[in-house]
Amino acid sequence: MTFTVRGSLTVPGDKSISHRALMLGALSEGVSSITGLLESDDIRATTGALNSCGVSTQTIAGTLRVTGVGKRGLRSPSSDIDCANSGTSARLLAGIFAAHDFTTRLVGDASLSRRPMRRVARPLEAMGATLRSENNDGLPMRIVGGSLRGIDWVSETASAQVKSAILLAGYNASVPVSIVEPFRSRDHTERMMRAFGARIENTARDVCFIPDGSLRRFDLTIPGDVSSAAFFVAAAMLASRGELRLLGVGLNPTRTGFLDLARRMGARIDIEDSRDEACEPLGTLVCRPGSLEGITVGGPEVPGCIDELPLIAVLAARAEGETIVSGAAELRVKESDRISAVVTNLRALGARAEERPDGFVVAGSDAPLRGLVRTHGDHRIAMAFGVLAALPGNEITIDDPACVGVSYPGFWDDLRLVTR
Description:
By secondary structure, this protein is an alpha/beta fold. It contains 13 helices and 24 strands.
């Protein structure tokens, strides 16, 4: 049986940029307009948190207007800040709240409460805030903010969330900060802060905030999320025929690692209509079927594709030869232990896969895959195996398809739209 991809698709707005646009709009001076904001559970968590601290938001004709309160202008919330399942909300808001003269308590769902927060608490404590987790290293976490001092922080891991928390704390406290990373992590925060008026300087592995000026109001159209587009790129890679066009996808070089890996596996991906809008590059991805081969992934390329590695594992199950991923221990502290989840599920379906401390090995095959996928409530696991389930001959059931609402509520409808 053939598997065809067809048509054009606009994927939802970038989740990382949506979080940051909301927060920077809240900290700016004036009313900012955001078009294309992702409508998902994670983004609703950030919006709700800001609303509870006195930030006014209003949607008019599809555009969200955020009335900024300026530096240190947030109001003390009257109750806990519920971050739901959103690690970005919790960690970036921690940086903002650390510079405000009130106490905040962050809570989340069971999954988020297990995710490590000490990595962001340590630099903020070094700046002078007090952060205390009530559940070992996770949420709930109480933040006692106030006057902060500058910091030069050397990060043990390449983490955009840690880097962003420090930058946001430095901005709100008007103190200089610098962050050095072992590898370059995604750079949306510094791009946006610089574009909207903050003084940011950076090289390949470090970024500095210099307290000079304030964020001004902005009008921003958010590009399509390349991490969401990746699932449709994968569908095209696995197809027998056809062509799929993904319109207006963000092509920030710190986020396109998956496209590089996909091409190494044999994907046929062209970029058309490449352009810059506001502070981010974007374009149209034109994707066609290809013959897939196993690859080796590791080292400095991992941070740029960390969210898409479960998808690489799924593609590897249909590639020629073995795919080996290492240096990706960070996958164990995402919404689920994604190393364990992908390997256990691949084995349950009949694929050959091996779990390693910091990655996995997957052997490709064209044998039919059948069975139940346990997502552990993780949207990336659901969508990755959902692509595999769309292939003719496979009989795969996803136990919790609704969990995709965290990042892509319309995923299943869009997947049916472009495949047959």
